[in-house]
Amino acid sequence: MYQLKEYQTITKITGPLIIVEDIKDIGYRELVKIILSDGTTRTGQVLELKDDTAVIEVFRGTEGIDIKDTKVRFLGKGFTIGVSKDMVGGIFNGLGKPRNMKLIAKKRIDINGIPINPNSRDVPEEFIETGFSSIDGLLSLVRGQKLPIFSESGIPHNKLAAKLAQNIKSDLVVFAAIGVTNDELNYFITEFEKTGALENIIVFANLADEPVIERIVTPRSALAAAEYFAWEHDMNVIVILSDMTNYANALRELSASKEEVPSRRGYPPYLYSDLASIYERTGRIKGKKGSITQIPILTMPEGDITHPIPDLTGYITEGQIILSPGLHRTGIFPPINIIPSLSRMMHHGIGLHFTREDHKQVSDQVYTFYSRGKKLEQLKSIIGEDALTETDRKYLKFADEIENQFISQKNRKTVKDTLNLAWKLLKILPKDSLTKIDKDIIERFWYDTDD
Q1: Which of 110, 238, 331, 451 has its CA 20 to 30 A from that of 80?
Q2: Any domain includes 354
């Protein structure tokens, strides 16, 4: 039986952290109870260990903690959350405590999860319908994939996150709102309740005015719940994390409190490994029916895709969906810039067995025509429309219609609706210009999609 260790050797308080010295046999990320002089308690976690010194992050802040009279009790276990099948439909704070319900936990699980043995991992496979044509048709999401969305300030990524949670086809959605305002949280909850989607969603919410430490815990709490449902209840779970920039900024703030030497843009040198510890808790396991698919959403500071957060995220994940300020300004929603966006796992989830046999070739043809149309837009601004050929004008029309009919949408579409719409728009160009599609596919679908 673990013998609880208690110390009264706090030597320093800095921001949300306390430094405890003369400790022995303490574990990294071990849970801590902090007992103040008035008898009240707070929870903390070991953030760093060096020789006989521990750096402890204190949930709910360090205000009121007295160096001399405060005791620190090490509990010999990591931070856990209570889980149960009754969580579905619930709203929890970043620490996993219910906001809108009473929960009788069936068990408690460590928020840091259990690493998946690489030999046990299965390849992401099977198409996931999101209801958005630009994603389903051109950037297909595959079960077990991690596919981030890169946004910018002023773009309605919260609206896209909410619509994805409502529209996506899966057994369960775990939605983590990280560092959001009360208004933003109320928006999410209202949207989920309005459509009845909350019955299939678990929300973990950390508010902007809550301690920064909780921002670090929130995505891990959400992923712990996802793992419980995926691996113990054989469910296919979608995890949406928004906004991971708030998470990374909280990590930078903690690093500064620890007086660590900063790396790029002031972020800690371990930002890559820390983000990987979150993103890699995704996938499929051989012999398991369940899966975890992850959609992290992040705001690129000043729209800079080379900023450390999107840059490192791109290395760890399997593609990216990039939102465009230009498309947003023209009223297109979702404003997905399909040209620089990609899904590296798409080929594992589409085709005859998952969507339709024409899917990949139609996607390639749409990209080819749209890319040419966008280049002609630039040329048109230089030489004028009168200098363009009749065929050039058709490419311009195709690009416009892709943006206004295919990318922009008000209602959910099935993947069949999406592919049929793509065929309808491809007919703007002559049949003999479809160089990316096999002739037998063209003959089968050129007329069928008119119905």
Answers
A1: 238
A2: no
Last residue of a domain, one of 292, 323, 348: 348
- 8 A C-beta contact, residue 133 and residue 421: yes
Phi, psi of 433 (to 5 degrees): -90, -5
Quote the pLDDT of residue 451.
47
Total domains in the fold of the chain: 3
In a domain, 411, yes or no: yes
Q: What angle do CA 207, 208, 211 make, to 5 degrees?
A: 85
Q: Is the pLDDT of residue 1 over 60?
A: no
Q: What is the pLDDT of residue 450?
A: 52
In whole angstroms, give the CA distance from residue 341 to residue 29: 37
d(C-alpha 343, C-alpha 319), whole Å:
5
Q: What is the DSSP letter of 403?
A: I
- Residue 444 domain-assigned (yes or no): yes
Asked if 283 and 200 sit in the same domain, the reply is yes
Q: Render pLDDT for 176-210 as a digit per residue (tens, 0 to 9).
A: 999 999 999 999 999 999 989 999 999 999 999 99
* H or E segment to which residue 56 belongs: strand 53-58
pLDDT in tens, 245-301: 999 999 999 898 888 888 999 999 999 999 999 999 999 999 999 999 999 999 999
Beta bridge partners of 73: 6, 33
**Encoded tokens for 37:** 């002089």
> Tokens for 394?
């058709």
Last residue of a domain, one of 52, 78, 104: 78
Q: What is the pTM of this model?
A: 0.93
Residues 380 and 393 in one domain: yes
* 3-state DSSP assignment of residue 3: coil
Asked whether residue 41 falls in the same domain as residue 146, the answer is: no
Domain that residue 291 falls in: 81-348
CATH number at residue 12: 2.40.10.170
Within a domain: residue 188? yes
Question: The domain that contains 178 carries what CATH number?
Answer: 3.40.50.12240
Give per-residue pLDDT as tens, 379-424: 888 887 778 889 999 999 999 999 999 999 999 999 999 999 999 9
The residues, any chain, with a CB within 8 Å of residue 250's CB and separated by 6 or more, are 179, 212, 213, 215, 216
